[in-house]
Amino acid sequence: MFFILSKVLSFLVQPISWILVLLIWMIFSKSKAVKKRLLISIICIAVLFSNLFLYQKFVTAWQTKPVTLSKGTQYSVGIVLGGFADFDINKRGYFSESADRFIQTEKLYHQGFIQKIIMTGGSGELINPEPKEAAFVKNELIASGISENDIMIENSSRNTFENAVFTKKILDSLQLKAPYILITSATHMPRSLQVFRKAGISVIAVPSDYHVINSHLSIDEIIIPKLKLLNDWGIIFHEIIGLKVYQLTGKA
User: Fold this and answer.
1) What pLDDT shows up at residue 13?
2) I want to staple 184 with a disulfide (CB 3.0 to 4.6 A). Which of 41, 81, 151, 173 is the partner?
3) What residues does each domain of the chain span?
4) Cβ contacts of residue 208 below 8 Å, gap of 6+?
């Protein structure tokens, strides 16, 4: 049930969904006054949530700040969370725009910061589950020169809470020394950190895949609306509300 509710939540927290609902309401409303108020609401939402300046400031404050590990330090395990691979209709895997999680994991291993890797992630699809992401990523890690003996996978989890619970079972069974490195997107890290620590796993955050970097914006970037942001805001709202739900249910 929790898994299904999270999928419904993902739809409801997107500004583009709000616009769609208001638009349908406006089309079927018979009151001119209501239609006018709904149109104004749609315009306000579209303008507010397509502004790059506001989006950059908000997301920069939410994201976990970059981390630099001290040279010469070594950790027994790097835990990388899934969510950076997609599959086509032929079940062939591809890296998504969040593939920086893979890149940072690979770098940490080859630079000697982590000795082993736990890749956690099954299929997050509600209907027609895709192939297990962890299995796909394992093959890609091996292809990048990482020893198969240093890769462990957990391919049953469907969300962050299950990532933590199932990963803890692996860590406990192997009695690997803590703390561990946690690798996921910078926007996903605040929720992930709390969930993993609540599960009793001592982790150090190494965020990746920054949706926003704190850069100087040109005048046209500030003024001209970016419609793509109507969807991107949904990702951030999903993380914030997801964290609150986890906290209320004792998962974070």
Assistant:
1) 82
2) 81
3) 2-63+224-248, 75-208
4) 100, 101, 103, 104, 183, 184, 185, 186
Residues 6+ apart with CB under 8 A from 31: none
CA distance 57 to 195: 25
Contact 79, 120 (CB under 8 A): yes
DSSP 55-106: HHHHHHHHSPPP--PPTT--EEEEEEE--SEEE-TT--EEE-TTTHHHHHHH
Give the three-state DSSP class for 184.
Answer: strand
Among residues 79, 95, 90, 166, which one has the least CA distance to residue 136? 95
Q: How many CA atoms lie within 13 A of 85 on its CB side?
A: 27
pLDDT of residue 6: 62
Task: Quote the strand ranges of 136-202, DSSP E.
Answer: 151-154, 180-185
Give the residue from 163, 217, 172, 225 showing the smallest Cα distance to 195. Answer: 163
Strands 93-95 and 114-120: unpaired
The C-alpha R_g of the chain, in whole angstroms, comes to 20
The b-or-e profile of 205-221 (16+ CB within 10 A means b, else e) is: bbbbbbbbeeeeeeeee
| pLDDT < 50 stretches in the chain | none
Homologous superfamily, domain 75-208: HUPs (3.40.50.620)
- The answer to whether the CB of 184 falls within 8 A of the CB of 80 is yes
